[in-house]
Structure formats: structure tokens, C-alpha cells
Predict the 3D structure of the following.
Amino acid sequence: MKLNYITIMVRDIEKSITFYQELVGLKIIRRFNPGAGEIAFLSHGESDTMLEVIQIDGAEKVSTKGMVFSFEANEELEILRDKAIKQGYAVSEVIDRKPKPKHFRVIDPDGLTIEFSEKE
């Protein structure tokens, strides 16, 4: 069984799309307006698990504690971390504690913890 997509009810779809495109490297696979709001599916590729971001006025927005989305970085961690800082995101220090790979965390526009780790 394959995980198809994860849905996040966001406050500002443009900020969310910018975050996931610029820092995570996701691309918009599909974007549409069903009438009550806007929906975008982002992914690294057509066959990969997608991230669905939805902005609908009046709908409950995502709020979570204890959940971390982890991505393997495609570039050097320090470069990616500096990029996140320049874009104004809340960023942790680089953490290097085995057995987990070297990583850092960023808070996305909706308060979700996103972790970037180096390739093993």
C-alpha cells in the first residue's frame, strides 16, 4: 500500500506553496478552485506521495504538537538552513546526535515542524 497524500488545512495557501516549493523543492502537480476555496497538490514527482494544501475560509486550520515532517535535503544542510533564515523562518541549530542523521528544523507558515536531514 502506498501513502497517496497528506492534507494540511492552511491559513494562507500562497505562503504555504512558497515554503514547500522554495525550501523543500516540491512542485505543483495540480491546483484548482472548487468554489469554496483553493486546493494545491505538491510533490517531487507524479508517482511520489503528495502534500495537499487547502485554504477554505471558515474551515478549521491545522494545529498540531508532536508531529514532524522530515525531508532528506538535496543540498548541504548549512546552505539550506541559511536560505530558511534569510526567508525569515524560525530555524533550529544543526543537530548532530547519532543514531539520527544530522538535521535541523524549521517552522512552516502554519506552525508545523519541518525537519531537514542530510543524506545518509
User: Anything to note?
Assistant: The chain has one domain: 5-117. The first strand starts at residue 5 and ends at 9. Residues 13-22 form the longest helix (10 residues).
